[in-house]
Amino acid sequence: MRAVEYRYQVKGLSKIGHYGLSTNNIVNFSYLPTGKYKVEVQTKDLMGKISKVEEIALEVEPPYWRRPWFYLI
Fold first, then answer.
1. Exposed (0-12), middle (13-18) or buried (19+): which is 42, by Cβ within 10 Å?
2. Is pTM, for the whole model, over 0.85?
3. Distances (CA, A) of 52 to 6, 41, 70
4. Which helix (H) or strand (E) covers residue 60, if one does?
5. In DSSP terms, which residues pair with 38 in a beta bridge?
6. What is the pLDDT of residues 37-70, one digit of tens each?
7. Nearest-angstrom CA–CA distance, 43 and 4
């Protein structure tokens, strides 16, 4: 049973919202370059009620071998 439909968009990366159906609250991004992003998320429940857009801030850090402290070792 699909209880919630999620719509999400990574600001600065994609211009079109991506739609996904999920019951486990997980969205997989295949690749995000290093940087700071804001993800806009909106839900629609089984009764068709649409939530307000929520914004989530996230940061993708570079791999350890690209960090300054790695070169100091």
1. middle
2. no
3. 12, 9, 42
4. strand 54-60
5. 11, 57
6. 888 888 888 888 999 999 999 999 898 888 888 8
7. 7
Q: Length of the chain, please?
A: 73
Condensed to tens digits (0 to 9), the pLDDT of residues 22-35 reads 556 777 777 788 88
CB contact at 8 A, 12 and 34 = no
Distance CA 6, CA 72 (A): 43
Per DSSP, the three-state class of 54 is strand
C-alpha to C-alpha distance for 2 and 35, rounded to whole angstroms: 33
Q: Quick one: which of 17, 9, 4, 12 has its CA closest to 51?
A: 4
